[in-house]
Design brief:
Elements: H1 2-31, E1 33-46, E2 59-73, E3 77-90, E4 98-112, E5 116-128, E6 145-161, E7 165-177, E8 186-198, E9 205-217, E10 222-235, E11 240-251, E12 259-273, E13 276-285, E14 288-298, E15 302-313, H2 327-334, H3 342-355, E16 374-386, E17 390-403, H4 413-416, E18 420-432, E19 437-450, E20 457-469, E21 474-486, E22 492-504
Antiparallel strand pairs: 1-2, 1-22, 2-3, 3-4, 4-5, 5-6, 6-7, 7-8, 8-9, 9-10, 10-11, 11-12, 12-13, 13-14, 14-15, 15-16, 16-17, 17-18, 18-19, 19-20, 20-21, 21-22
Helix pairs in contact: 1-3
Amino acid sequence: MRRRERHGALAAALLLVAQTAVAQAEVGAKRAMSIAPYASTSATYSDNVLLTDADRRGDLMLAVTAGLRITGEGSRIKGYLNYGLTGQTYADGAKASTFQNSLNTFGNIEAIDNLAFVDFNGSISRQAVSAFGVQTDGGIPNSNQSEVSTFRLSPYLRGQLGGSANYEARYAWTATRTGTDAASDAKVADALVKLNGRVPSGRLAWSVEASRQSVDFTTGRSTESDRLTGTLSYPISNQLVVSATGGRDSNNYTNAGKESHSVLGAGINWSPAPTTTLSVNASNQSFGHGHSISFEHRTPRTVWRFTDSNGVSTAPGQLISTTIGSVYDLYFSQFASIEPDPIKRALLVNNFLQTNGISPSAPVIAGYLTSAVSLLRRQDASFALLGVRDTLTFLASRSNSRRLDTLTGAADDLVSSSVIVQQGFSVSYAHRLTPQTAFNAIASAQHTTGSDSQPDTHLRTLSLNVTTRVGSQSTATFGARRSVFDSPTVPYNESAVTGSLTVQF
């Protein structure tokens, strides 16, 4: 009985926290579009604003942000956009004034009923340029950061052939601008045609897929990859499906001309319950062994996630396409049982994180920018425990990367270090002091290891924050942090206090 009461209290608390976001989403659905502008101002005093022990300077950083949140819930257009422009200045002029953009957007357009569609998504954020330069938790901008923007547009056709097979023909265009001469911009074009169906009067499913990808780095060389594969899938039970894949792959990643390789693989998908899924796929690739593992389990109070992948990375930002370890995505998965609609759920998650003083985008490992096709092994584990007044979040991540395109002349960290390993963790505890006020503590660490002559670095950060609602549309946050960065070349330690006020209109 007590367990049922705790679960009922938890559900009531979550629904209370999300009430504002859900109400906004419902209004947006009726009006087809919801527009919510917001503004914030903050002041941060740092005793080492230059983030260097060689020239310690204390200064007050003032920041003002103007933003716009748009939610579309029309019959043909569904989308979400959150954009903010931040201006930063320093009271004693220790640094030059700057402007920063931030963007998170995604959506879908149904151009022709049940036939033609367009997916789109985009992001703008500051990312580390070098894995071995100065690293921060994102509080103070530094010279080892750049504003990176990525936009993707993907029109496609989807339908049925004679009632016995399904088809999809898709084209995707992705553009990334790194905003720095130290790394290359890139354009990626993907074309894909896929057919799938079932054997008549049988349980065996089949699919055939043909794809082509071209990657153009502005300071490097262009690469191409062609792939043709066929897959057979068989459901051993309603919960377990096994599959086998075979085909050919042709690319010029390691040669001036294309080389062809066979592709053989196998996989399993296990879903013993709607809240538990396990997917394992492994195959031989032109670069060697490739695999992807994904596990997720949800209970009324917890969500557990783990991923492990090894494959080709074509994005200039090593972590651009990998978000499994972010706090936002962890709670986005957890709230699936409360709100299945992704647009409304995005509002729900943002409202929940803001109310509890939890940063949605705090990175576990900062990553770095690359200028050529690379091989990336990435592992992420995350856990969240949701109570009526307490929330505990744990994130851990590890990446191992090396350059795959050895013919290019473009320079990045993988030239000076043949292998780069980054690993880190973050633990966050949030406690609701009152319905309007929350306390949040975050401890994080990141370790970067290189080969050859590159030095190891180690970043440790502890931050404490109190967030409270000031009226129905305003939120105030007060916090303190301590950071220590160990490096043979650019070490620093920093203490800072900050305060901010956010108003939603």
